[in-house]
Amino acid sequence: MLHLDFSIYNDWYFIMKRRSLVFRYTFFALLATVANLATQRSVLWLGENNTLFTLAVFAGTLIGLLLKYILDKRWIFHDKSMDLKSHTQQFSLYTAIGVFTTLIFWGIEACFWLIWKTTAMRELGAIIGLGIGYVLKYRLDYRFVFNASNQE
User: Fold this and answer.
1) Which pLDDT tens digit goes with each residue over 42-98?
2) Burial class (CB in 10 A: 0-12, 13-18, 19+), 152
3) How far is CA 54 from CA 23, 40, 78, 87, 113, in A?
4) Over the Cα atoms of the chain, what is R_g?
């Protein structure tokens, strides 16, 4: 009897699936980062003082959060729940986790701003903070927010 070993195919499929996920998540994180920073720049176009800086950070974070939630729900976690209760619970938890990871992002961005007080260094701090935050956020979202869709 002929025995075909498909384990190589299964390994290859898993690797390709993982790479696709990493690519999509990274791409969506970059989109949200660009949206965040573009929003911040739009606000800071009005001037550069502490009040506008705070407004810029909050506005950029909100835009980035909304965009990232929509993309993650559909294309990363393949969550198809559409009822208001599920959506509200998921977005609330997604946001709560986002607050935690955002504190990391804000802390790093603020440190860069306070130390160097230049747009370039503030944005470098933002990129570093967002990168760290997104990695942690994926792990927490997978485990706590979209865990029902991950069990399928």
Assistant:
1) 999 999 899 999 999 999 989 998 999 999 999 999 998 888 998 899 999 999 998
2) exposed
3) 31, 9, 34, 29, 11
4) 19
d(CA 50, CA 37): 17
Question: Letter for the amino acid at 85?
Answer: K
Neighbours of 119 (CB within 10 A): 14
Instruction: Give pLDDT tens digits for 1-41.
Output: 555 555 666 666 677 788 899 899 999 989 998 999 999 99
pLDDT digits (tens, 9 = 90+) for 105-147: 989 999 999 999 999 999 999 999 988 998 899 999 999 999 8
- HEC string of the chain equals CCCCCCHHHHHHHHHHHHHHHHHHHHHHHHHHHHHHHHHHHHHHCCCCCHHHHHHHHHHHHHHHHHHHHHHHHHHHCCCCCCCHHHHHHHHHHHHHHHHHHHHHHHHHHHHHHHHHCCHHHHHHHHHHHHHHHHHHHHHHHHHHHCHHHHCC
